Amino acid sequence: MKDAINIPLSRTTMQLITKSLIAGTVLSLGSGFGTGIGIASVSAETHLMFNTSAQFNYNAYPWHQSFNLLWETLMSIRTRIGIWPTDTWTNYDDIELIFNNLKSAYGNVSPNGFDQDKWALPFLQHGKELYSQAKSYEGKNNTLASEMYLCLQILISLFRRTASVFRLGWFPWVHSNTSHSSLKKACWDLEKQTYERGLALAHYSFETVNIPFKLKPHDSVYDTIPIYVNYALSKGKRNGGSNRTKAKTVILVCGLDRYRSGQLTNVQLLLSLGMNVITVDMPGTGDAPITGRDTGADTLLWRQLLDWIEANAGAKGFDKDNLWAWGTSTGSYWSIKLSRAEKNRLKGVLAQGAASHYTFTRDWLESADHLSYAVDLWAPLASTFGYVDDKHAFADVASNYSLLNQGVLDQDAAKLLSINGVEDTTFPIDDTLILSYYGKGAFLRMAPGFDHMGEPAATEWLQNFWAAVADGSVANKY
Ligand SMILES: *[C@@H]1O[C@H](CO)[C@@H](O)[C@H](O)[C@H]1NC(C)=O
Ligand SMILES: *[C@@H]1O[C@H](CO)[C@@H](O)[C@H](O)[C@H]1NC(C)=O
Ligand SMILES: *[C@@H]1O[C@H](CO)[C@@H](O)[C@H](O)[C@H]1NC(C)=O
Ligand SMILES: *[C@@H]1O[C@H](CO)[C@@H](O)[C@H](O)[C@H]1NC(C)=O
Ligand SMILES: *[C@@H]1O[C@H](CO)[C@@H](O)[C@H](O)[C@H]1NC(C)=O
User: Fold this and answer.
1) What's the CA-to-centroid distance between 216 and ligand 2, angstroms?
2) Which of 170, 203, 236 delimits the end of a domain?
3) pLDDT in tens, 209-220
4) pLDDT tens, 80-112?
5) What is the three-class DSSP state of 221?
6) What is the number of H-type helices and E-type strands within the chain?
7) Does residue 178 sit within a domain?
8) Is position 41 within any domain?
9) In which domain of life is the source organism classified (predicted)?
10) What number does the ligand 1 atom closest to the CA of 361 have?
11) Domain span at residue 293?
12) Distance, CA 397 to ligand 5 centroid (Å)?
């Protein structure tokens, strides 16, 4: 376990230490490691975010108060730029129209804990209009090749734009079996349909696979693990046919509010580097066959997924010796477990925006509803662990879900890297730091001044990191 010498360090001192480490230092401070140097002497009671004044600075996040403020102070700005919770393909006018709708009915109502069907309804209605528009264009043909190409591009972006309306319709959480909201489930269904249609038209080699979940535990809700496989583009062409060129393969473990059809930005980055990408919904989200309630169940999910990858490596071109995982946001929690469960089959794991330990306290869960997350975080997170719309029951047992308390952090692991913003108020940065204190430690890249996932500062690092994975120089560089 961690050596805890009680040297009280101020937040500022800790930030200085942190800043001196951000150039990419391996922090490997497990048991038996000397306590005399640098960060090794930080006590468990010293935090950068958890239980500091920043955890309680609720005034900085006005959007929890009302739909009016959610639009004015967050959604209108994010939609213009096309960043989370929207994306590059989101159309401003769509979201403005939908929010005008919500504001006129619930302008002064808090979006936190808001009725899920009432949230979903205007997104569902508008999304369906866009969808039928797209379908009608799909039927029209133009004889001129260049015009056809143009039409196709418009059609592809219309499908993506529609998918992003449906995605926001179920935001921040849905699961096709355990969710109580039929309208959110309808949005999820239509997001997949529109995303798949858009991708099929575009220049991708793309496949939907339902892996038989033979190892499934008794409380599974489905018999399959649904995944999307995006095959590496071979010299700009579709890498198709029965014999695909062998390529490095990345498993993208999706998060709380973006599932296997919501990762196109990351998918495009990895494809552009010549790698295959598999996207999978994390437990308790999308169409995952298990929730996170049973802390042992995910091991079976990962084993089944890796077994399938191995069994299909030859036919589908997965380079078995170069399998990586990338967990984003809450997906990072599962990717850390994956780094332990599949340490022998994975070359490395990147956890971006980690939740690992301090997140799983009633104190943090209560605060998180008032901090940087766009709406309330506690109940949706609880729902992914199988405590659907029962956040208090989850808080009562939250410590059971800490990876430290489960002993997961102490276990042997594949190479683990983690990147996040130091000012993260979705999951405290202490959950990233702690990865370096136990077991084999981790390679940490922290971005001071940035919030959850370290974006947009993280983008360049991520590009360089994945490029190094792709060209094989990663072992020397990270
Ligand atoms: C927060 O810090 C105070 C001391 O400043 C301590 O008494 C309290 O137990 C801490 N709370 C948690 C949840 O760690
Ligand atoms: C569009 O063109 C394709 C290929 O030329 C043809 O197979 C299809 O039937 C046409 N569709 C319509 C609705 O005209
Ligand atoms: C969820 O899955 C269980 C087990 O497969 C099934 O019995 C139940 O009907 C499903 N519920 C819904 C709402 O789909
Ligand atoms: C696929 O690869 C196998 C073994 O490498 C080879 O025997 C076969 O001819 C290839 N098929 C095609 C269609 O290229
Ligand atoms: C939580 O962990 C405690 C201590 O290990 C255990 O007694 C309890 O049954 C667990 N609760 C749940 C709901 O798993």
Assistant:
1) 44
2) 203
3) 999 999 999 999
4) 999 999 999 999 999 999 999 999 999 999 999
5) coil
6) 17, 9
7) yes
8) no
9) Eukaryota
10) 13
11) 205-477
12) 7
